[in-house]
Amino acid sequence: MDGTALYPARAPVSWLGSLTAERKHLPLIRFEDVALRYDAGPEILRQVSFHLEPGSFHFLAGSSGAGKSSLLKLMYLAQRPSSGRARLFGRDVTTLTRRETALMRRRIGVVFQDFRLLDHLTALENVALPLKIGGQREDKVQQHVAELLAWVGLADQIHAYPPTLSGGQQQRIAIARAVVARPSLLLADEPTGNVDDRIAVRLLYLFEELNKLGTTIVIATHNESLVSQFSHPVLFLSGGEVRMRAAPAAGGAGTGSAGGGSAA
After folding, report:
1. In the prediction, which pLDDT does 220 show?
2. Which pLDDT band, with edges at 50, 70 and 90, does 21 fall under?
3. Cα 217 to Cα 65, 141, 166, distances in angstroms
4. Would you state the pLDDT for residue 8?
């Protein structure tokens, strides 16, 4: 435990920008009978059908090896379906050119299970990367990154290098990097797997705060105890197929369900 407060402060106002402007007239993600296999191997996913509305918040649950990471890869365009139809932001992902794929990925933030921080860069420099790639002015980069690191409780670690930080601190750097460019969609793969229960709940509050600003969120986890504390619906993966599970009754740690999805 690193002494940070359980409840995060509100997100910095100057960073919000146009985050809440996502259109709500079409599902942000729609999968229809999607299947995925790697090379000539067995199907990892089969007949996956669901849609998620803009501004929704869902957990993606299932046992280890159920295919959660593979489904996330389809959502952030690291893989294409072997069959079926997948639409993201209203576009059929199988028709995207390489340039269109790269541009669409800029609208997606990803928190990887293994963090994927660059050890030779400071916390500030790691979080700044998406903004610098996007051509943001240096003064804006410095302002937004410093505010976000303060938001995730790391204001005193902005010049620290990842190897000197705890797993929970590195995870929060990865989260700040994923959200700094104000993504329309945030995907997180086991973001609480390397932290204790108290920090795990704090991280979920951070995701809820971001969701209130309009970002669609999907969090993959096998931690059923954590899922039960928050009132959000669950995409449950089993046997390569997905079914939607309604949000648990209110009364847990979470602030409420964002709803907005269905599965066949």
Report:
1. 94
2. very low
3. 21, 24, 25
4. 53
Phi and psi (nearest 5°) for 12?
A: -60, 130
Residue 18 pLDDT exceeds 70: no
| Coil, strand or helix at 220 | strand
Residue 108 structure tokens = 């997606």
The answer to whether 216 touches 22, Cβ cutoff 8 Å, is: yes
Q: What is the mean pLDDT of residues 201-208?
A: 84
- Going by the DSSP 8-state scheme, the letter that residue 165 receives in this structure is S
Mean pLDDT of the chain: 84
Q: Read off the tokens for 83.
A: 């069959």
What gap in Å lies between CA 24 and CA 22, rounded to an integer? 6
Give the pLDDT confidence score for residue 22 in this predicted structure. 46
HEC secondary structure over 26-68: CCCEEEEEEEEECCCCCEEEEEEEEEECCCCEEEEECCCCCCH
Six-digit token pair at 57?
């918040």
- Whole-angstrom distance, CA of residue 50 vs CA of residue 10: 32
Distance CA(166)–CA(88), nearest Å, equals 35
Retrieve residue 90's tokens: 């209203």
CA distance 111 to 198: 19
Could you give the CA distance from residue 258 to residue 130 in angstroms, rounded to a whole number?
27
Q: Is residue 15 predicted with pLDDT exceeding 70?
A: no
Helix, strand, or coil (residue 234): strand
